[in-house]
Design brief:
Length: 212
């Protein structure tokens, strides 16, 4: 694992960013997030291999809908910044703005922070559940080929030499929750959009809270 990455066992704390939406982007209204009031909870939701979510499943309403927002950052345009506690991923646009996506993050005990690069990209990636996940859900398959029923979803961005990824999901209702084993998940329509915007080599900064 990249030496700049450090694990943390502390729980996630919600802190508002005070960001102002500028432009909501259109998408297919087929998935809705849970209420923001539940954001600070770790959800005991297991993976559901075989459950189908289409490639255009997108959150279109509420705080987790893909939208352009005001965003103060010293990072160069194109940089991906993840704020785990707020459940948002940003693609810096410059001029004080960023494109924001709602995400699902690691449950308590599986959060981390650091700086990596996108080392690989894949469409409809295969899935190999990590040992920690198999301990919690021993009924899961040891391997599952990519496809609409795969928990990895429609696209994946691999993060450096770590086991973590930014990927889609066949459970879009979990966006905004702490449910994963350290990966960051987006609704399939959103990860497909992000996949086209983010080339291999892109800098990815993972933080627990916003730095104002």
């Amino acid at each position: 694992m990249n030496p700049t990455i450090r694990s943390t066992l502390r729980g996630l704390v919600v802190s508002g960013l005070g960001l102002v939406p500028l432009l909501a982007l259109p998408g297919a209204a087929v998935a809705q997030p849970r209420p923001p009031a539940a954001v600070d909870e770790t959800m005991e939701i297991g993976e559901e291999p075989g459950r189908v979510s289409t490639e255009d499943a997108t959150i279109t309403e509420g705080p987790y809908a893909r939208q352009m927002v005001l965003f103060r950052s010293n990072e160069a345009p194109g940089t991906v910044v993840i704020h785990s506690a707020e459940r948002f991923l940003y693609v810096v646009q410059g001029n004080g703005r960023a494109l924001r996506y709602g995400i699902g993050v690691g449950r308590e005990g599986f959060t981390w922070s650091g700086q990596v690069q996108v080392s690989r990209k894949a469409e409809w990636p295969d899935w190999r559940p990590p040992p920690e996940m198999l301990q919690r859900q021993p009924y899961l398959p040891r391997f599952m080929a990519g496809g609409p029923g795969n928990p990895m979803g429609a696209r994946a961005l691999y993060l450096g030499s770590t086991v973590f990824r930014i990927h889609g999901t066949n459970q879009p209702e979990t966006i905004g929750q702490a449910v994963s084993s350290g990966c960051f998940r987006l609704a399939n329509g959103d990860i497909a959009d992000l996949y086209e915007r983010v080339p291999i080599g892109t800098k990815v900064v993972i933080r627990h809270k916003a730095t104002l």
